[in-house]
Design brief:
This protein is of the alpha+beta class. Helix content is 40%, strand content 13%. The protein has helices at 2-6, 14-18, 40-51, 60-72, 98-109, 133-142, 150-160, 167-171, 203-206, 229-234, 239-245, 257-263, 291-294, 305-313, 318-324, 330-333, 351-361, 368-385, 389-398, 422-431, 442-456, and strands at residues 31-37, 84-91, 115-121, 124-131, 218-223, 247-256, 269-272, 342-350. The strands form 2 sheets. Strands 1-2-4-3 form a 4-stranded antiparallel β-sheet, sandwiched between helices. A 4-stranded antiparallel β-sheet has the order 5-6-8-7, sandwiched between helices. Helix 3 crosses helix 4 and helix 6 (133-142) runs antiparallel to helix 7 (150-160). The longest helix is centred in the last third of the chain and has 18 residues, at 368-385. It starts with a helix and ends with a helix.
Length: 458
């Protein structure tokens, strides 16, 4: 029955669980431990739909068919929003076999698009692997098909990845069609009693999508639960390992295209609303981010009224609307869209990447709009970690911009160190002005160096 597959989070049924044992004796058995699987079909589907300016379709079946179609077209970049995390635990004695050692070296060489952490524990070697379905597909395509460790990757994919993603690998004979049996886990309480006697369970009736937590500019779509640390800790992995494989998926909206250009420089999973396929909304007050208005309380508090009036009279979408109205197609008319047209993105970070983004984009020299995004992201991280006191200090340290850390604490790895108060940091960031790099003479250079010293002493 399909229900038996649904209630098993790992391999679908007991029979499949047994095949993860190696052909070696008990001491050399390779253990495969599933840590967590993100709601991958939903996240990837949401990323694909954001590209065309639409929300996700309702139900598992509709999302499955859409992703199956996208994979058939070869659109694999959206797979960056997925995440599967597992542990390979093996005896050190296993690696005394030269052939298996070589297989491990080749296997690890192909995992460049995955996040790998290794820990030694008594007589065991534990390998923590996390990453997107796209990364796992690369390993399956590029590795020697006789590689000893490829067998375990296949078991993870069979037991954790929706078949909608795997058509090309099945066509090429890399995966076996009848073993791709994964369906998302459904909680028993979500299933009606009468469904339990059916041969097939309507998965749409029990398909749960993540609860989206909305924000002014950033919505939290999904985050890897921090309680997976309970599993990781048993195998010798620490918080840093957790933050290297755990992911956070966010919808960033109502930001300008110029702001998004700064965000997309980060090497993370990104899907952005397309100006080729979406006809842009053209309300100057609602669909355009005015950088002068964002800085009206400080930088432009003394702005000349004539300049302000002239700005209010401008319609930044005039040319775009004209060409759209005269049969110029969207992908060509977009050439006349202003840089600060609003856009939306779906971005998937590891926790570690997100810490770096928030820290970097909170610096006083960052542009006002991206600092506002960073503030929203910091609020989301505070929410995620609010129930975990053990990690609060760690987060506080890694989210504090360099400009606000004491000089002696800048090389601290795991210790919290000392900082200015949260309110002081907030105030300094909101008031800070970017430093001009237009150096014309020695006097300008001296002023710049002096300003830099002031920031260091904050």
């Amino acid at each position: 029955m399909l229900f038996n597959k649904l209630k098993n989070k790992i391999f679908g049924n007991e029979e499949n669980k047994e095949v993860v044992k190696s052909s070696y004796d008990t001491d050399n058995t390779v253990n495969l431990i599933q840590v967590t699987v993100a709601p991958n079909l939903y996240l990837v589907h949401k990323g694909a739909r954001i590209c065309v300016g639409r929300g996700p379709l309702e139900g598992y079946t509709a999302q499955y068919k859409h992703i199956q179609k996208m994979m058939g077209f070869g659109h694999e970049s959206i797979l960056e929003h997925s995440n599967v995390v597992f542990i390979l635990s093996m005896s050190k004695d296993l690696l005394k076999d030269t052939e298996i050692s070589c297989d491990l070296a080749e296997f690890l060489a192909q995992t460049k698009y995955l996040n790998i952490r290794v820990k030694e524990q008594e007589n065991k070697i534990n390998i923590l692997i996390g990453g997107s379905i796209r990364g796992y597909m690369h390993v399956l395509r590029e590795s020697d098909q006789d590689n000893f460790f490829l067998f375990y990757i296949k078991q993870i994919v069979y037991g954790s990845v929706d078949k909608a993603f795997l058509g090309i690998l099945i066509e090429k004979g890399i995966l076996e069609d009848d073993k791709c049996t994964y369906v998302p886990h459904a909680d028993i309480e979500d299933i009606k009693e009468e469904d339990l006697v059916k041969d097939e369970l309507d998965i749409d009736a029990s398909y749960n999508t993540p609860e989206v937590i909305p924000g002014e500019r950033v919505d939290l779509v999904y985050n890897t639960p921090l309680d997976i640390f309970d599993i990781l800790g048993k195998f010798g992995f620490d918080k840093d390992d957790l933050f290297s494989v755990g992911t956070v998926t966010l919808r960033i909206h109502d930001v300008s295209r110029s702001c998004s250009n700064q965000m997309t420089r980060h090497r993370v999973g990104i899907s952005q609303e397309s100006q080729r396929y979406c006809e842009h909304k053209t309300d100057p007050k609602e669909d355009f981010v005015n950088p002068v208005v964002l800085n009206m309380k400080d930088r432009y508090k003394d702005l000349d009224k004539e300049v302000k009036n002239h700005m209010d009279e401008l319609d930044p979408f005039n040319n775009y609307k004209y060409f759209i109205g005269h049969n110029i197609v969207k992908e060509d008319a977009r050439a006349w869209l202003p840089m600060n047209s609003k856009t939306q993105l779906l971005m998937t970070f590891t926790y570690k990447q997100l810490f770096h983004f928030v820290k970097l984009r909170s610096e006083p020299g960052a542009q006002t709009e991206v600092r506002l995004v960073a503030k929203d992201l910091k609020d989301i991280l505070s929410y995620i970690f609010s129930t975990n006191k053990d990690m609060a200090g760690y987060i506080s340290y890694y989210l504090t911009p360099m400009a606000y850390r004491k000089e002696e604490d800048r090389d601290v790895d795991d210790d919290l160190g000392e900082f200015t108060s949260k309110e002081e940091v907030k105030q300094e960031i909101s008031m800070a002005e970017p430093t001009s790099l237009d150096i014309k003479d020695l006097e300008d250079a001296k002023k710049l160096l002096k300003k830099n010293e002031e920031y260091k002493n904050l």
